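TICKET: design request
STATUS: open
ATTACHED STRUCTURE:
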């Protein structure tokens, strides 16, 4: 087991994947008082001459996120953005790690009584959110501070994993084979 946090990247099968929609819903609840765009962050080269991504023609996933995991594998934070390409997501994480001291935390009240979460911003742009609801404001603040410190030195994974539909079996790949290096 690793002794440091890690940032992992997950690719959704499609932009309509129910897990992505759940993630967007959770983010929307966290950012109810902030501008919450469902835009996908894309690299300029991710579109072909017709302005389509590979997924527009059904060839590859077009949406992915990153998650900050504690050494025990528990999610302690997640990206605020949906990314259109793995390289864009990875570059963004590496850039954010150099700007941890500029991250501003905001605690928010959840959709029901006794639920609290947090949003982390850099230059008034939301970059990371809590992955779950907390029962008290003090627990939320502690979790947010822990996530910020864990993110600072987190190991950033070199590839992404495609999230499979519920009940689907992941094909076995040799351990040396990256799952989706360089793309979703």
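STATUS: resolved
RESOLUTION: sequence designed for all positions
ATTACHED SEQUENCE:
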């Amino acid at each position: 087991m690793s002794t440091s946090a890690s940032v992992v990247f997950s690719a959704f099968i499609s932009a309509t994947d129910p897990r992505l929609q759940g993630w967007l819903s959770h983010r929307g609840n966290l950012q109810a008082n902030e501008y919450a765009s469902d835009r996908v962050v894309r690299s300029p080269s991710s579109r072909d001459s017709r302005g389509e991504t590979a997924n527009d023609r059904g060839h590859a996933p077009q949406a992915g996120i990153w998650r900050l995991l504690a050494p025990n594998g528990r999610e302690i934070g997640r990206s605020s953005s949906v990314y259109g390409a793995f390289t864009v997501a990875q570059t963004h994480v590496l850039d954010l790690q150099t700007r941890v001291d500029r991250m501003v935390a905001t605690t928010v009240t959840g959709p029901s009584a006794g639920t609290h979460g947090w949003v982390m911003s850099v230059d008034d742009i939301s970059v990371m959110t809590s992955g779950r609801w907390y029962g008290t404001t003090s627990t939320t603040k502690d979790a947010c501070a822990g996530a910020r410190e864990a993110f600072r030195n987190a190991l950033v994974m070199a590839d992404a994993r495609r999230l499979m539909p519920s009940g689907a079996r992941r094909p076995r790949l040799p351990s040396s084979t990256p799952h989706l290096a360089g793309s979703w």
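CLOSING REMARK: The CA atoms of residues 2 and 71 lie 6 Å apart. The longest strand covers residues 155-162.
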